[in-house]
Predict the structure.
Amino acid sequence: MLFTRKSLLPGTALPEGTRFSGHGFPDPQRFALRADADAIPFSYSQLDAILRMFRIPRGSKKAEQVADTLRACEAESSDAHACATSEQAAADFAASSLGVRASDLVSVVTAVHGGKDATRYVVAPDGVTRIGKAAGAAAVVPCHPMPYPYMVHYCHQPADVEALRVELTGLGDGGVTTAIAMCHANTMNWDDRYFQMLNVTRGEEICHFMPRNYVLWLPAAELLGN
């Protein structure tokens, strides 16, 4: 689902097979209540206790997923990050990162209208709208689900990004999706394979769509394009 910013034009057809739901992207779930989530151990040092609590056999694929998630959540990163086990925790991290109150935040998501992907999408006329501040302001916090026995979101604050709302229409079957896209302005240190895949030069702005089980937080006062 990677593409260049300059290629996102009205009438552009997305690659065949582009999907925002299903096909590896499960439907959005509900978080546990914060009090319930906070009462459950969430640390790699407590892995054995967590596996016992959820009756996950040690050495199983699910156990490896739990371990990988806990390690990722505790790993150091150049971006400020946190793993949220409740919606309130996600909002608190986003508010702290963006320097606003949680009550002044808004969350936006990709919406597959009708719940079913189109066979193939094209960008609608006037379908690309910038939301939030421009690239370099780092005024957004994206969160994505991690494999775990209950809902956990990995939230971080990337630098040099621009958030877009993209209206997509389906070819032939009339399906419609409102997609959220993230465009990364500084790609100088990205892996070579991304530039080879897109046939572009190093450092060019590269974007990706957010599946509908991802969430983007930003200050409500800075939400543009409404």
Remarks:
- The longest strand covers residues 121-131.
- The radius of gyration is 19 Å.
